[in-house]
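Q: I have 49 residues here and want to know how they pack in 3D. Can you give me a structure?
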Amino acid sequence: MQSNKEEKCMCHSYWKRLEQHIVAFLDSNTLFDLCEETRNKKLSCSVIE
């Protein structure tokens, strides 16, 4: 059952879907992935240097 606040907010389902996409993105990428991408683009990544 939804609360009254959720029922009144027309954007709630959009924000919930956005949250799910963000969580899935963060779960599928690691700090190592970020550093590898940075290294491949010849940018500085102080975590691995």
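Q: Anything worth noting?
A: The chain has a mean pLDDT of 79. Residues 4-40 form one domain.
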